[in-house]
Design brief:
- The structure holds two protein chains of two kinds.
- By secondary structure, chain A is α/β, with parallel strands linked by helices.
- A five-stranded mixed sheet of chain A has the order 2-1-3-4-5, with helices on one face. In chain A, strands 11-10-14-12-13 form a five-stranded mixed sheet, sandwiched between helices. In chain A, strands 8-7-6-9 form a four-stranded parallel sheet, with helices on both faces.
- In chain B, strands 2-1-3-4 form a four-stranded mixed sheet, covered by helices on one side.
- In chain B, helix 1 (2-11) packs antiparallel against helix 2 (20-31).
- Chain B has helices at residues 2-11, 20-31, 36-46, 50-59, 79-83, 86-97, 142-154; strands at 71-76, 110-115, 127-129, 132-134.
- In chain B, strand 3 and strand 4 form a beta hairpin.
- By secondary structure, chain B is of the alpha+beta class.
- The chains are: A alpha/beta, B alpha+beta.
- At the A-B interface, helix 3, strand 10, strand 14 and helix 19 of A face helix 2, helix 4 and helix 5 of B.
Amino acid sequence: MEDLKTFLIDKVLMYESDTLSPETNKVLQQVRREKTNKPVIFVSTGTSSVIAGSEKTCSAIDTYIKENEPSAELVHVGCNGPASYEPLVCIQIPGKNKLFFRNITEEKVEPLLNGVFHNDINEDDLAGQTGTKGFELWSGIPFMDELPFFANQKRVILSNCGFYDPESIEEYIARGGYRAYIKAIRHYTFEEVCDIIERSGLRGRSGGGYLTGLKWKHALNTTSSARYLICNAKESDPGAFTDRTILESDPHRLIEGIAIASYAIGASNAIIFMRSGSDHAKNRLQKAIDRARDFGLFGHNIFSSGYNLDVIIRVEPGAFVCGEETALINTLEGKRGMPQLKPPYPTTAGLFGKPTVINNVETLMNVPLIMQNGPEWFRTLGTDNSPGTKVFAVAGKGRMSGVVEIEMGTSIRTILEDIADGIKEGKEFKAIQLGGVSGSFITDKNLDIVIDYDVLKKKGIGMGAGGFVIIDENTCMVDLVRYYMEFIRNESCGKCIPCREGTGRMLEILEGVIRKPLNEESGTTLERFKGVMQLETIASVMKDTSLCGLGQTAPNPFISALKNFRDEFEEHIFDRKCRANICRGLRTFSIDVDKCTGCTACAAKCPVNAIYGTRLQPFFIVEEKCIGCGICFDICKFSAINVK
Amino acid sequence: MGTDLDIILRKYKQGKREDLIPLLQEIQDDLGYLSEEAIVKTGRFLGLSTTKIYGLATFYDRFRFFPSGKIQIRICHGTSCFLNGSQTIINKIKEETGVMPGQTTRDGNFSYEIVSCMGGCCNGPVINVNGQYHTHIKAEQLPELIKRLKYVIEND
């Protein structure tokens, strides 16, 4: 191990020429497991795989290896992308291409491995093969990158994910890692690195789309005794998991990006701000940082360049608003995570009043690649104004879900129809929710919009952090909007009034819409209508007057749902009907006289005593009293209760 | 218990304001919750008033001030799980345990919390019971699951 470390440092990281010597390449091939004479089994072990049961798969494989194939090696890799295929197992027989098998749960392990080792492959579990130069092809088996899920993607920053052991720094270096960082600190000045990134046209991936190089220059040009770099890995939008996948699958590239960014702004302290509850990602990242420190990539006078850097991890204590820059800084300073008025921007006075650059995970992942391949290469990807790629977490009702990376300029239709392969179970498509709780809905008339900062901005759609939720006909839009509003109401920090009161009031009104008024006679019906009419006004006031992005964007889901699904809102309000049959409060129940045996079970359980009758004779429900809870429906053994 | 607290405090030699959150997180990881004693001691150590610390800790969701139950259930309520019906799961658990999210049942057996996304979006609704994931969970399965967990605790 020690030998390999010195070898990698001397012959790879410190090697002056861009092309490595053939002897070195030979060793690196072995480290990458491309030249090996034993079978290797790769199992993805990201959070989504663990949830699907990959830990059990791993132990089953371990037992199998011990009993039957002692020469084989089991490697835990990161997540490859298609979450619907988890647990994904990849097997490399010496000299042959890698084979991928999907949904390999515990009990499937033994038949699968028996088959593979005895040349009798079960086609049902097979996903595809990936080619390595000089390796024998499997005939009649499709290539992974020809599958629609991968063929329409452009995996650049995710290129390593799922192909190497994220806990092994050696493998990352063997894949060309950390060379860009060492080159930067030894041969470039701070300004030169900022220049390269600015020329590449890289824009912040968290939604705003500000030029990253320019942001760095602002911080660099502010005179100060210390500067900070913060990597914002606080991704807590419900339904977004891109950052976590990156942290779990390729932590070293992120660390390299952080290191280069810190160097570019002259910061000697970098902080990774993580979300709570993802211990798996945190452990992997911590291990990666420790290994990098062990290799001398952090610390004092790194590789005799005179540059010092230390990287630490901080875990957020649980508040959605902490993802906002100024709130994040307050949290790191040990205060309540409440946003502040900008300017001053963090690049002039941020953490402890010092210039601070805050970049998100995806932005920083691009940095090592730009340094390696040059800004011109980056410009060839994507569109003129938005070069590069964008990562999305595709989830919801699509046939495929998972983490996908597409080139900027790809249409939303491509992601929906080709990558996600349409809607599950042949249901009707309704909308796509782009950008999490602060995003908007995209309906079928807007599906041909391409992913590009300026195009989306013109249409009034925020790119968001990478949530891409597919919604089918079985979802009630009013209920979904209420769900987002409930989330924001809970997470509003309470500092400014429009957000604190506005979210609460909007939630109250929306909750009124999804249930029947309790009393028809008194003023409640009128109040309900008044509330609904106020919704749009409240939304616009919140948009204009809230202090931070959380409040300003909070009404977005509502506004775009109202624009696109006005008829559904009206149905709820006027007809008291929910077409998706989700809103329980709008249902009416009645008892089928022929089926009811008069067992009294429903009457005993009804929380509002709305069911009357005589024992052993049919009962009836008083509609005015019924609150539509559905308890009677669940409890009836004779299916005598009808729902409308 | 008191000695553990001292060991944790000793790690943060300088005792600055920015150490407050990591310190509280570490105490919570160790104790399972923030006790009154811990908050008072931390305040004395950092030179901050107890109300300040309490005010900060209540702002964030992750800090708890009561011990969690022996069985800790986390329910995913991300968009994807929501679309697959996590609301009925939450309602059912609320009904079964009789407490609100973040609270602990009186016998100290159960506590549950709602989290925004666990990352198992294609397997929703997902719940996590003491670190063990359960996927594609249905409300009808919960009473059985809770009964089984109760049995495990009582026979431990």
